[in-house]
Amino acid sequence: MRNQPGGLDTVSFAYENNASSLSVDASGSSGQSAGPSPSSATGLTFPTLSNITMPSLPNGSNVSNVATDLLDAADKQIPTLGLNARRKFFHGLAVAMFVPGIALDPAFTHLSFSVAFALFTFLEYIRYFAIYPFGAAVHLFLNEFLDHRDSGTAILSHFYLLTGCSGSVWLEDPSKILLYTGVLTLGIGDAAASVIGRRLGLRRWSPTTNKTVEGTLAFISSIFGSALLLRFCGLTDSFRYLRYLLAVVIAGLLEALSDQNDNLTLPLYMWSMFVAFGV
Question: Is the peptide bond prior to 106 cis by the omega test (within 30 degrees of 0)?
């Protein structure tokens, strides 16, 4: 058959320099189509929905298994710093971040604490359900700060630290020295008690605890000294020094004899002592 210029009965592509040839019949091999299809007209084969294999996505009961696998994989990562060093680093960071805000604009700091708490709640939701792509990464980060006092499926250590630092600001006492209660208790006192107690502590309060007398003394002296420094720098009003010191001593004894998560209980207890003693 001879091909006419401008008419196309049979499309033939021949590659004489290669060992193969491709011949396409415009009418189709099945004879069922009424006209030329796009694939037969060009010599190319296009995939159809029936030829595409869709990936299997987790649904129903598989969702919890995928979340568990992601969290287990994150747990296998090995942290590079000691637990106490990682936790106390954020205590010190709280001092650098929150003291200027409380001194310059307590109202805005109050709002910032509230926004941070809402953000923590959202991040915990992402971590708990291992929502891709941030769930495993958030779990890995927070998992490095857990100790024996943290239990349950929810990780609350960062909530306790934030609430402890912000509680005295949220309560809005007229005395400005009370606004610093949470930051001084956790950022200064608790960190000093931990560092001094571990490095220089010799006398334990009881055989069943790691708390030492030296750590408690460091707790009391560091908080009272920081309060005097704030007064000297003009960042707070005058207050009753002896009553303040007495409240710090009582809170120091609570810190030494309690094994609870003191990030939450200790600042609120100390703030209550300050109010009761009329500091």
Answer: no
